[in-house]
Amino acid sequence: MASISIEEVSKVYPNGFNAVRDLSLNVAEGEFMVMVGPSGCGKTTALRMVAGLEEITSGTLRIGDRVANQLTSKERDVAMVFQNYALYPHMSVAENIAFGLSLRKTPKVEIKQKVAEAAEILGLTSLLDQKPGLLSGGQRQRVAMGRAIVRDPSIFLMDEPLSNLDAKLRVQMRTEVRRIQRRIGVATLYVTHDQTEAMTMGDRVAVMRAGVLQQCDQPQVLYNQPANLFVAAFIGSPAMNLFDATLSEDGTTLRLGSQDLAMGEQLIQLRPGLAAYRGRRLVVGLRAEDLPVYGNENAAQAVLKAHVETTENLGSELLVHFSIDAARVGGENLGDTGELEIVAAIDIIGEGVARVEPRAPVRAGEDALFAVFPERLHFFDPESQIAVS
Amino acid sequence: MQSRLSRGLVFVVLCLIGVTTVYPLLFMALNSMRSTQAFELNPFGLPTHLSLSSYSALFSTVPFFQSILHSLFVVVPAVILATFASSLAAFVFTKVPIKMGNVLFWTMLMIMFMPGIVVLLPLYVEVARTGLSNNFAPAILIYTAINIPYGTYLLRSNFRSIPDSVVEAARVDGASWYKIYLRVILPIGKPGIITVGILTFLNIWNDLFISLVLLHAPNTEMVTPTLAQLSGKYTSNIPVLMAGLLLGALPTLILYFATARVFIRGMLSGAVR
Hints:
Chain A has helices at 43-51, 73-76, 93-103, 108-122, 137-149, 167-184, 195-201, 219-224, 229-234, 266-270, 334-337; strands at 4-12, 18-27, 32-36, 58-63, 66-67, 78-81, 155-159, 187-192, 204-209, 212-217, 241-247, 253-256, 259-262, 281-286, 302-313, 318-324, 328-329, 342-343, 350-356, 367-372, 378-380, 387-388. By secondary structure, chain A is of the alpha+beta class. Chain A folds into two domains: 4-232, CATH 3.40.50.300; 234-388, no CATH class. In chain A, the strands form five sheets. Chain A has a six-stranded mixed β-sheet with strand order 6-7-8-3-9-10, sandwiched between helices. Chain A has a six-stranded antiparallel β-sheet with strand order 13-12-11-14-21-22. In chain A, helix 3 (93-103) runs parallel beside helix 5. The radius of gyration of chain A is 25 Å and the shape is elongated. The two termini of chain A are 39 Å apart. By secondary structure, chain B is mostly helical. Chain B has two domains: 1-61 and 233-247, no CATH class; 63-229, Orthogonal Bundle (MetI-like fold). In chain B, helix 1 (2-31) packs antiparallel against helix 13 (238-268) and helix 10 packs antiparallel against helix 13. Chain B is globular. The A-B interface holds A 51-53, 72-74, 78-80, 82-84, 86-90, 99-100, 103-104, 147, 151, 157 and B 163, 165-166, 168-176, 179, 183-184, 187-188.
């Protein structure tokens, strides 16, 4: 067992592409760290550098106490689960799991015992003689896990191991993977593009964008206190509603399109940083669940009036898709490029989502009033995109 | 209706291809069992009575079995060496990150595109001057070298269909490059490697030019030059020649039938996936 310490690590490919820039990240012993970001954000490259499959251009990688930059994968003693599982097609399940051990000249009796143990943990005992070609996706995934855990590696690396599974199995395997990781207690670096997976699995989550680490913290912290616009927009489903807004000169009123939301003195008291934005534009963020329907139970000082476009009743909650006349901030293709831009259409219609009580009196095509609470708002600088607190 | 017609057409075309493939073999087999006179009267006639006299004539005029042995002496080691070397090279070109890998590969490919006849004269001069003619060992090495580029070319595209992640998984599992080659690439690439082996076998077994240059003494002569002696400028005993050709082709036919399934799999792999 060991910790992983990534210190200012960069990767520049021969063609000049800078895939990872000055990444610093620590994974403690036994910790489950999830790296998340849109495709092409450098998370897989970072993982492959830790695995020893990709050279490190600059910076230091430590596994345990050892500097690992120049070590081979074998010397690093890592185990890795690949996105496509990468099982050896000509070997049986048992041989696949045993391969790493047999390379290390482990005695045959011990190999047999360890393979049996791993198969037991993963429920593969009846499949040990099968070839991978005959297995289902979920079974292959478990063989890949087995191959990794059987060696008692110092660290555990996973590259989108669940992305090839169907939705139901993926949810099931999330808990499974976490259960196994807790059981073996090895520092784990897990890469995914799925923020739900990141939030549900990680002890901590590192959000990457264009090769740069944006924020690394516990899921709840990422959700409640996103460090910048990108994290705010990327983490959470439905995504945070982000609108272009202006703070009044006295700092008590927020202008959102044609509406003035009276926030009171409280606003700047809660976030002293906002004082610098008096009379200036900024980006305001509202989580869907922080927009309850205005009424007796939710009597707030400020009320947002919005036009309800459609509603989705999920049984336990109602998703209200609304529009207001403020410019929406967000990337149209956030998932692909990680680019964020202020969408300022000529006829400004900002779309948003609210998550309300299933029995709330909201109907598509009508206007609805939502309560807005100053303490639940998020603010970002429109230029630097950094959170204002 | 349309599909039945087109299927019928395909059937006819396939039959024609089948006949043109099998006919020469049949021609050789039938005529090797006719007398010279009967053949000269009607080359396309069927044998009226079967005689094996051509075979005994073949064995008495040329050292046939000896030449088959000579061929095997050369072909078997050359095939093993060339296939092994090609598979190693293809493995490195596809899976091992090396500097200038592509430059090396294209240089090698350039050699493959050079017509064999071009090297014949320099080869003859070299072999004659160094006194290495009529010697099996240099012949084996030369045949090996000549066949490496083609084998590497075929196996490179074949190995490309093996996912890189399987090789990476083996690296993470702790395998050296050598172990990866031995325990991952060889077993997965077996159909392709066997195919290259068979093609190399055919190449060398059927070669006439180079073997004429390298091994021309009676005590080293391979089967193709030996059979060539049966066809004179003015006189040729066709049934005897047919008997020789049929027997000479027998090893390749046996090899094909023994490995047909793997061979076809190897030829198709990469194309289908």
